[in-house]
Design goal:
3 helices, about 10% strand, three-stranded parallel beta sheet, alpha/beta, Oxidized Rhodanese, domain 1, about 35% helix
Length: about 90
């Protein structure tokens, strides 16, 4: 009886001490203000605005030139997100 209990405790300790599984890679993210976003546009810096709201909200009002990719479908549409330009999601 003692041996199985000792093995169980040892296995638990080893499992607890094992390295954590890999998580999503680090992405350099930064929160910017409206003024900072406008400054990017004014400087004509390559920036892509992605509106993550649902289509009816996007249709009501959005930043000129922004792409609409609703947040709940973003993971499935990552191929639509440019990888070289600065991205601003709002």
């Amino acid at each position: 009886m003692r041996r199985p209990l000792a093995l169980l405790l040892l296995a638990s300790a080893v499992a607890w001490a094992a390295p954590a599984p890999a998580d999503d890679p680090e992405v350099p993210e930064k929160y910017i203000s409206v003024d900072e976003a406008k400054a990017l546009v004014d400087k004509r810096q390559a920036v892509v605005f992605i509106d993550v709201r649902e289509k009816p909200q996007y249709d009501d009002l959005h930043i000129k030139g922004a792409r609409n990719i609703p947040l709940d479908s973003l993971r499935g549409r990552l191929h639509d997100v440019p990888r070289k330009d600065l991205l601003v999601l709002y």
